[in-house]
Design goal:
mainly alpha
Length: about 80
């Protein structure tokens, strides 16, 4: 099952939905939710990369895009 973030983000900001998503993905609680989701639904999830993101989340310098999350934590075969 796929988690689609663009629909609610477009509702909040139709001209820049990516900004809503990127801000949401900076939160530690969001990273924990995404990690749990992947652990339950993705046998190829990379937990070490997840831990790195979780440790950095919430700090002022932390930025995480959907693409960066996918590239770092999800097996490339599943994305294709």
């Amino acid at each position: 099952m796929k988690l689609v973030l663009s629909t609610p983000a477009k509702y909040r900001n139709s001209s820049e939905p990516f900004a809503i998503i990127n801000n949401w993905m900076r939160s530690r609680s969001t990273i924990e939710l995404l990690g749990l989701w992947e652990q339950l639904s993705n046998p190829d999830f990379k937990p070490l990369e997840f831990e790195r993101f979780k440790n950095e989340a919430g700090s002022n310098y932390f930025v995480l895009s959907q693409q960066r999350w996918i590239e770092a934590t999800i097996d490339k075969k599943q994305v294709a």
